[in-house]
Design goal:
271 residues, alpha/beta, Rossmann fold, 8 helices, elongated
């Protein structure tokens, strides 16, 4: 399962991610990082990250956040990056970064009570055991440590073209509805994050949503998403190959003010 699957659906078969997803997954991961890394970094900076911090990046899936964390914590800090598939880690595993195979929804926490920050993006919704995953992340925090979790909520805004004024926009929206139906998305998970953090005992819980619209990153993300879903959509009879070809041509040929589903970010402090 690729990053796009995680973003749109919360699919739980996370052990299928990684190198097997191919070049399309790489392009989608790059588009996703371009869109959402800035908001992730803004939240982490707000939480006060600095030299010497000990951080756990859960379900890392790539190097962009890991590398950014390493620069902020410096040589006296530590960044533990874990994922069920760590085939992406060839250039990341150098001090202060440690990369380890770990499935947060199955495995015990790699450490308890030692991290200043635990961050997970597109992880909880796809975890085999969400309660275990959240407990493990909180257990790994030191008293006063911060947890930041981020999940998509396509149900809040499921349309790639909110301004549906023509046939190209209508086709884009129909294909997205077909894609979400085909993947069986639990599309409203993200909005529940603040409640989940409070119920888990965190304090000073806050959240916000980032909804990108009309950016180059949205165009790249939409193209990568549809390319990856092409075979699944056509084999399920949810779209024709001609429709998908037309949509991809529309994306390339005309400005469509494409949007991505909102990313909900929620954070709190361990007592």
């Amino acid at each position: 399962m690729t990053l796009i699957d995680r973003y749109l659906t919360g699919n739980r078969n996370r052990r299928a991610e990684g190198a097997g997803a191919g070049a399309g997954a790489g392009r989608s991961a790059e588009a996703f990082s371009a869109l959402f890394d800035p908001t992730t970094f803004r939240h982490i900076e707000r939480l006060g990250i600095g030299p010497g911090w000990r951080c756990w990046e859960v379900g890392a899936g790539g190097t962009s956040v890991v590398s950014w964390l390493a620069k902020r914590v410096g040589p006296t800090g530590r960044v533990l990056a874990t994922d069920a598939d760590i085939s992406w880690q060839t250039s990341a595993a150098r001090p202060p970064v440690e990369v380890r195979t770990h499935d947060v929804g199955v495995d015990a926490a790699p450490a308890q009570g030692g991290f200043d920050l635990v961050h997970a993006r597109l992880v909880l919704a796809g975890a085999a055991d969400r309660e275990l995953a959240l407990r493990s992340m909180i257990r790994a925090l030191r008293p006063g440590g911060r947890l930041l979790v981020e999940e998509a909520d396509p149900a809040l805004q499921p349309l790639p073209c909110p301004d549906e004024y023509g046939p190209a926009q209508r086709l884009a929206n129909r294909l997205r509805h077909a894609l979400l139906a085909q993947r069986g998305a639990e599309s409203a998970y993200g909005r529940g994050l603040p409640r989940l953090l409070r119920e888990a005992g965190l304090r000073q819980v806050e959240a916000d949503a980032y909804f990108p619209l009309g950016s180059v990153g949205c165009v790249a993300l939409e193209a990568a998403t549809v390319q990856q879903a092409r075979a699944a959509l056509t084999s399920a009879g949810l779209a024709t190959d001609e429709e998908i070809t037309t949509h991809l041509a529309n994306i390339a040929a005309e400005p469509m003010d494409l949007a991505a589903a909102p990313l909900i970010s929620a954070w709190g402090r361990k007592p």
